[in-house]
Amino acid sequence: MGLPQDFAGKAVIVTGAGSGIGRAAAQLFAARGAKVAVAEIQEAGGADTVQRIERAGGTAFFVKTDVASEPSVEAMVKACLDRYGRLDCAFNNAGIGGKFLAFHEQTIDDFNRTIAVNLTGVYLCMKHEIAHMLKAGGGAIVNTASGAGFVPAPGMPAYTASKHGVLGLMKVAAKEYARSGIRVNSICPGVTDTGIMAEFINGDPAIEKLMYDTLPFGRMGRPEEQAEAAVWLCSDAASFVSGESLLVDGASVCR
């Protein structure tokens, strides 16, 4: 019998795996024995993640994926099944921050794009992953939500709405498929040192100071810390955990 977090022989899809939390999770899954489908819309980032995994002795391939497009998501799942013959776990992590503007200044195009990637994208991934897992007899899914799934992020109404929605989707699926052996959970990262966060700060010392002043640990989280939580939730070590919204935020929300 393998260790509780041993993924040897298992196949995993990670979306948004070309950078940040997704890349860290893809590398961690591979380091623990999983064969990884690196799903990413940016080819350069996805290819780089695959190279990093292979250099470390792991197994991975890149599949270009736009999670807001159902045909693209269908093709992603099919590519994993064609390559590995199975799909045991999925980490639906792809997302965008949207524009930081006052509520009344947001455009409908920006709102719709954020919802399409962050919420509809998670729905589509879950839909097609679950359809296969039902045939296979079970599986584990983790979605990336946010602390903004619990509390508002002023200036980011679409992002806040999308992350609240991700938690709602997770809860429905966790209840609906529990007897089918499918576990569904979410991680809710706090402020994490990723490219999205760097874009948000945009080199502005005032924004950076404002952000750090709100962090109980006095620092941002690291992508690797978020990855550990996601991989644990997919592992047999979390075999009785489903429907959970796991805050990984250094005590920022404390719900």
What's the layout of helices and strands?
Blueprint: E1 11-15, H1 20-31, E2 35-40, H2 43-55, E3 59-64, H3 70-84, E4 89-92, H4 108-136, E5 139-144, H5 157-176, E6 182-189, H6 195-201, H7 205-213, H8 223-234, E7 245-248
Parallel strand pairs: 1-2, 1-4, 2-3, 4-5, 5-6, 6-7
Outline:
By secondary structure, the protein is of the alpha/beta class.
Structure report:
The chain is an alpha/beta fold. The protein has one domain: NAD(P)-binding Rossmann-like Domain (Rossmann fold), CATH 3.40.50.720. Helix content is 46%, strand content 15%. It contains eight helices and seven strands, in the order βαβαβαβαβαβαααβ. It has helices spanning 20-31, 43-55, 70-84, 108-136, 157-176, 195-201, 205-213, 223-234; strands at 11-15, 35-40, 59-64, 89-92, 139-144, 182-189, 245-248. The protein has a seven-stranded parallel β-sheet with strand order 3-2-1-4-5-6-7, sandwiched between helices. α4 links the parallel β4 (89-92) and β5 (139-144). α4 (108-136) packs parallel to α5. The chain is globular, with a radius of gyration of 17 Å. The N and C termini lie far apart (37 Å). 45% of the residues are buried.
